[in-house]
């Protein structure tokens, strides 16, 4: 089944930078259900366990799964926080557990004939291969699956943040996820420097509608203002609070041309939008897998290291990508030497050793070429089993198809919300809310702070509620009571994520109906 001509035309319009128009009947249930019938990705929803209205009320384990219950599915719009559980996770975990129980330590090197998993030693590399088309790597050697996001960020900063007296600053956004702030702050302090002088924040555009928009112009201006003293730029591919998608290729190129190493936090981008990290020449990137990748709570993380930084070669040769571990040699001109090998400096551990020598237990560290040379310890086979199940589903589609649907379904949610906004504002004005001048005063109950340009966002809309006492709590309670699962960010933002893998147009329609009743009160 293919996307209907209507969905295809809307996708083409959006990708061309235009705003698609929805017909007058788009506000009806029938229209939403028609889009679902025509959606070629709709069958993928059956690969997931979507919580039901009744299962969300569970207080104790009953040995049942949501689909075992006679209850309508919840409206699960929180894949930007925790993705839905793939149905095959149990099969993959059971395979790992049976292997462990049956052959014990031999599971490290043995692949059971009818198992969906490879040997434990090769599981992380197998997952890395499956990430290649998702993150746009040149090969699996640029991808590593290990640890969690912030741990991986620290490992990357240990290698790529090499401050000098001249270049010591790190440029970040003004409102990063707190863990990124802590990581950058502590790395600067670790090097004996002060965040007050070495930590530079990109400020949002004060004249934007939301006051939260990070324009490319503002980012590039900040880079220019601190170019000669900046060692590293760290930004989010997608800003977690607003859902804004940044222009990663342009920003990366611009910063690198000014001697700055570029890293990206892709927590909200991997599995959500199309990426081409290798072609964009990104130095490094880190991400989690429990959001859009659906690997489970606290699941194992991932990292990307461009191939030029992962080279391992004789000490007589230089390790560089126009610099030992930077992009142009301005602040990175040396590699790390072990024995007769030379490579990008890093914090090392035995599991980063090349497999050919890993179990020789020698003192000389010989890293695996590529990103996997940054592995420190043996990754959890249980975590990798869960991730393997999640990545299997991505193998049934492509990031292009997922992005196509995301552009339309998120646009549909925006269209319906704007209809509600127009109606509620009209009702308020009709009821005569007066200002000091005696004129009717417009008072919107909410606004969308995610960029209106579909190409500047992923599968998320952030809804800023009016600053009215108790409104966030009232709306959140109504959504919860009606089976809507989304998240709130204080002081007054509700974030929804109509993830294309398992969310439907009918989900979006139902959510907006419930939200409208809640916000109108």
TrEMBL record:
Binding, pyridoxal 5'-phosphate: 149-150, 177-180, 265, 268, 290, 350, 378
Task performed by this protein: Catalyzes the cleavage of L-kynurenine (L-Kyn) and L-3-hydroxykynurenine (L-3OHKyn) into anthranilic acid (AA) and 3-hydroxyanthranilic acid (3-OHAA), respectively.
Keywords from the UniProt entry: Cytoplasm, Hydrolase, Pyridine nucleotide biosynthesis, Pyridoxal phosphate, Transferase
GO CC, alphabetical: cytoplasm
Keyword Nucleus: no
Positions of post-translational N6-(pyridoxal phosphate)lysine modification: 291
GO MF terms, alphabetically ordered: kynureninase activity; pyridoxal phosphate binding; transferase activity
A Pfam family it matches: KYNU_C
EC number: 3.7.1.3
Coiled-coil region(s): none
Metabolic or biological pathway, per its Swiss-Prot or TrEMBL entry: Cofactor biosynthesis; NAD(+) biosynthesis; quinolinate from L-kynurenine: step 2/3; Amino-acid degradation; L-kynurenine degradation; L-alanine and anthranilate from L-kynurenine: step 1/1
BP GO terms, sorted: 'de novo' NAD+ biosynthetic process from L-tryptophan; anthranilate metabolic process; L-kynurenine catabolic process; L-tryptophan catabolic process to kynurenine; quinolinate biosynthetic process
Catalytic activity entry: 3-hydroxy-L-kynurenine + H2O = 3-hydroxyanthranilate + L-alanine + H(+); L-kynurenine + H2O = anthranilate + L-alanine + H(+)
Compartments, record wording: Cytoplasm
Cofactor(s) the protein needs: pyridoxal 5'-phosphate
Xref: InterPro entries: Aminotrans_V_dom, Kynureninase, PyrdxlP-dep_Trfase, PyrdxlP-dep_Trfase_major, PyrdxlP-dep_Trfase_small
Entry-linked HAMAP family: Kynureninase (MF_01970)
Record's subunit section: Homodimer.
The family this protein is said to belong to: Belongs to the kynureninase family.
Domain Aminotransferase class V: start-end pairs: 86-362
Protein name: Kynureninase
């Amino acid at each position: 089944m293919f996307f209907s001509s209507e969905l295809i035309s809307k996708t083409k319009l959006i990708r061309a930078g235009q705003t698609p128009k929805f017909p007058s009947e788009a506000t009806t249930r029938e229209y939403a259900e028609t889009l679902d019938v025509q959606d070629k990705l709709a069958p993928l929803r059956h690969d997931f366990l979507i919580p039901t209205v009744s299962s969300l009320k569970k207080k104790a384990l009953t040995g049942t799964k949501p689909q075992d219950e006679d209850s309508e599915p919840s409206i699960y719009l929180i894949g930007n926080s925790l993705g839905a559980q793939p149905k095959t996770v149990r099969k993959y975990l059971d395979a790992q557990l049976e292997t462990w129980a049956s052959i014990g330590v031999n599971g490290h090197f043995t692949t059971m004939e009818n198992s969906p998993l490879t040997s434990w030693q090769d599981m992380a590399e197998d997952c890395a291969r499956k990430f290649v088309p998702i993150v746009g790597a040149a090969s699996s050697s640029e991808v590593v699956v290990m640890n969690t996001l912030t741990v991986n960020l620290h490992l990357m900063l240990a290698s790529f943040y090499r401050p000098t007296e001249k270049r010591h600053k790190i440029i970040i956004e003004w409102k990063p996820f707190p863990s990124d702030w802590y990581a950058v702050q502590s790395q600067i302090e670790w090097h004996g420097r002060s965040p007050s002088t070495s930590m530079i924040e990109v400020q949002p555009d004060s004249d934007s509608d939301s006051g939260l928009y990070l324009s490319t112009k503002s980012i590039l201006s900040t880079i220019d203002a601190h170019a000669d003293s900046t060692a590293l730029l760290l930004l989010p591919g997608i800003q977690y609070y607003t859902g804004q998608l940044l222009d990663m290729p342009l920003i990366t190129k611009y910063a690198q041309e000014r001697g700055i190493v570029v890293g990206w936090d892709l927590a909200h981008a991997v599995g959500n939008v199309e990426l081409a990290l290798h072609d964009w020449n990104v130095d490094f990137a880190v991400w989690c897998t429990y959001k859009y990748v659906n690997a489970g709570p606290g699941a194992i993380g991932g990292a990307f290291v461009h191939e030029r930084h992962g080279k391992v070669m004789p000490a007589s040769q230089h390790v560089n990508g126009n610099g030992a571990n930077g992009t142009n040699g301005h602040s990175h001109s040396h590699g790390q030497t072990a024995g007769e090998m030379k490579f990008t400096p890093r914090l090392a551990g035995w599991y980063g050793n090349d497999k050919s020598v890993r179990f020789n237990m020698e003192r000389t560290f010989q890293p695996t070429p590529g990103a996997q040379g940054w592995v420190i310890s043996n990754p959890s086979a249980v975590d990798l089993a869960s991730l393997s199940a999640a990545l299997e589903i991505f193998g049934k589609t492509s990031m292009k198809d997922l992005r196509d649907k995301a552009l339309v379904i998120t646009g549909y949610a925006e269209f319906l919300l704007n209809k509600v906004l127009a109606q509620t504002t009209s009702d308020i004005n009709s009821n005569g809310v007066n200002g000091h001048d005696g004129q009717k005063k417009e008072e919107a109950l909410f606004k969308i702070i995610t960029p209106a340009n579909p190409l500047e966002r992923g599968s998320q809309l952030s809804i800023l509620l009016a600053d009215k006492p108790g409104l966030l709590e009232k709306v959140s309670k109504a959504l919860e009571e009606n089976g809507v699962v989304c998240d709130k960010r204080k002081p007054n933002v509700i974030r929804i994520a109509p993830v294309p893998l398992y969310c439907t147009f009918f989900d979006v329609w139902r959510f907006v109906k419930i939200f409208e009743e809640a916000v109108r009160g």
